[in-house]
Amino acid sequence: MKQKQQQNKDEKEFTPCCNQSVDRKGLNVNREEDWKLIENHIEEKLRMYSSTESITPVSCKKCGRLLSYSSVLKRDKKYFR
Ligand SMILES: [Zn+2]
């Protein structure tokens, strides 16, 4: 399994602003269609996990790339660590 030997000379693999893989076509909150997907995803999650109070997409301020979701659990208020 020596497949990791090819190293590209151009280091465009990661965005400088948020260090995300450029190859990966991630969602971008600046793109309207992506934003809809994100919203749908959040709604679905909220429906699935009733203990989740809210989910906020965390995106790069510079390029708008979606980095992760930050969710607030209802229980966190009671038992916050
Ligand atoms: Zn970025």
Give an account of the 3D structure.
The protein has 81 residues and is an alpha+beta fold. The protein has one domain. It is built from two helices and two strands, in the order αββα. It has helices at residues 32-48, 75-78; strands at residues 52-59, 66-73. A two-stranded antiparallel sheet has the order 1-2. The longest helix is centred in the middle third of the chain and has 17 residues, at 32-48. The termini are far apart. The model has no long low-confidence stretch (mean pLDDT 85). It binds zinc ion. Zinc ion binds next to loops.
Question: Short description, anyone?
Answer:
With 81 residues, this protein is of the alpha+beta class. It has helices spanning 32-48, 75-78; strands at 52-59, 66-73.
Percent strand: 15-25%
- Give the CA-CA distance, first to last residue: 43 Å
Q: Tally of extended strands?
A: 2
Number of self-contained structural domains: 1
Biggest sheet, spatial arrangement of strands: 1-2
Helix content: 25-40%
List the helices and strands and how they pair.
Elements (H helix, E strand, L loop, with lengths): L31 H17 L3 E8 L6 E8 L1 H4 L3
Please describe the structure with a list of short key phrases separated by commas or semicolons.
single chain; two-stranded antiparallel sheet; binds zinc ion; 81 residues; alpha+beta
